[in-house]
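S2.1 Query sequence (Trk system potassium uptake protein TrkA)
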Amino acid sequence: MKIIITGAYGIGTYLARLLSRNKDDLTIIDEDEDRLAKIGSDYDLLTVHGSPTSVKTLKEAGTGSADLFIALTPSEDENINSCIIAHALKAKKTVAQVNHAEYMEPAVHQMYMELGVDELIYPEILAARDIINGLKMSWVRQRWDVHGGALVMLGIKLRENCGVLNRPLREICGPTDPYHIVAIKRGNDTIIPGGNDELECFDLAYFMTTRDYVPYVRKIVGKETYVDVKDVMFMGGGVTAVRALQSLPKYMDAKVIEIDPDRCEELNQILDSNTLVIHGDARDISQLTDEGIRNTQAFVALTGSSEANILACLTAKRLGVRKTVAMIENIDYVSMAESLDIGTIINKKAIAASRIYQLMLDAEVMNVTFLMSVNADVAEFIPKEGSKITKKPVKDLKLPASITIGGIVRNGEGMLVSGNTKIEAGDSVVVFCHDLNLKNIEKLFN
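Output structure tokens follow.
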């Protein structure tokens, strides 16, 4: 596959890192030679120095034969214009990053599709969705829903009171049990578990279950004492915070602490009455205490500084807040934040790159999420009639050891998978794939 990316910035660089696993024909266009030199030395790709909206530059990069053209510069106007030009040059599919929610309105989106922009990516909306999912379940690090929750994947940090520690998985999650363990993060290692593996204290375990059995999973992992989030405090009133606050469930009340007084005035105009806007510095422990941090169930740090967000979440945990969410844009800090037990980590680069990565796959894929914590992809495939995966029971498919089928949705009903399960065409199949290119397994579904 021939892929062209414009903009060697955060999302473009992270996406290049993901795509470098595929051995595709990858080209990056940017106007800054220093950025190109850095990305060119880190990954196996071609670089082209020039303007993303220059017809000459796009032709030089081979846009006319591109399977996927992705515009990821900070300028949404530049991204849209370059996609329109790429479409005119016969690129097969175009994707543009935008910075305003109005582009995602169906009528506006349709208009740009007619102009040649096939997909629009707005990272703030994608990040807000993950933040809200994290807040809805205070005892979960990460949640991923299939078909509106017919199947649910839960990433859970296990503590001493977990009732299923130190027992072989074949004893605690067999074919008749209502959950499966699809992956375990232990220290720096990712384990795709077999029946003889055991859960250990401080593991980050990924459970696949159905909607009705989420309370059961909560009970067996010892998280029933975690109170549900009703009061949440945000640090930073930027665009991501606004999108999250506007999507907050009605039963939650929020406070947002913003250091810029002018931004506070804007927030008061934008946000509804469920949100109290406070001018101040959320790094100030005395102010946090005065604003009721000890009676708050969740703390969300969304400033532009990864370091400040990490430190603020550590402070909130020390003051008794169990659920913390930190936006960490510096990829190098993610592992450190995990080792510090920060909680839910939001990285817009990874979230947006996952959505774009989905567009590369030839099989019918409904959703793709890249889990930074375990270096794994979770994808929802829909097998075609006569595809290889529908011809034998799961136990006879001889799947690679790094792949787990977590479950399927058939006729709207979520089902866990055993070795005897036979997948049918049209099922939604949840595949957990560690350290392996998804394109290597999509052939099973075509």
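The first helix runs from residue 10 to 19. Residues 133 and 143 are 6 Å apart (CA to CA).
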